[in-house]
Amino acid sequence: MIQAITDRRSIRKYKPVKVPRECTEEILEAGMLAPSSKNRQPWKFVVAEGSAREEALAAMERGLAREKLCPLLPESAIFLSDAWHTLSVMKQAPVIIFIANTLGVCLNRPQTVDERVAEICNAQSIGAAVENMTLAATELGLGSLWICNTFFAQRELCEWLDTDGELYGALALGYADEQPAARPRKSRSDAVEWRSK
Ligand SMILES: Cc1cc2nc3c(=O)[nH]c(=O)nc-3n(C[C@H](O)[C@H](O)[C@H](O)COP(=O)(O)O)c2cc1C
Prior knowledge:
Layout: H1 3-7, H2 21-32, E1 43-48, H3 50-69, H4 80-92, E2 95-101, H5 113-139, E3 143-147, H6 154-161, E4 166-174, H7 188-191
Antiparallel strand pairs: 1-2, 2-4, 3-4
Helix pairs in contact: 2-5, 3-4, 3-6
The protein binds flavin mononucleotide.
Residues 9-10, 12, 86, 145-149, 183 line the site of flavin mononucleotide.
């Protein structure tokens, strides 16, 4: 097994230590080396550091506050407190990389079946990129957290991003200040079905 795959954890406590620029560059490179459907490479990475990071966090906070009064995701209200927790983690992480799907369409716009298939393929491509990035971070001795709770602040964060497409999530990066145990996984018999004839 590749060591980084077994060692990687979602990290929710970070040390207040700067991440060297070369490390962030290498992690971005790992993302860009991911496979993608039709080689469309539907990703755009926006690295938020310093005051840009503060602005992004403020946009997310506005979104979460708005979500309670005027929800974009009314059926997901039970997860809103989890999103506030994610925001508190993001506030500790020295680097946050926002990941947009440049070919994504507005969340509440109806899609044709073809568009939906393209969206699923693009989502998988972005997932491959983010996974590469988490593994590269692990290899470099950095902790990371893959974040989709940004969707609760989709409107505010997309305004802040001001880029084509839709925000798909974020990756928090920094030096871990915790060593979580491996989280449980489905058993092999639940997750895998062998069919051999
Ligand atoms: C697509 C995706 C979105 C996620 N979003 C969040 C999030 O918004 N906040 C959070 O704390 N964790 C988030 N996680 C982390 C998961 O909770 C975590 O991967 C899972 O519990 C397994 O733990 P592990 O990563 O340590 O193995 C996300 C993970 C993935 C793959």
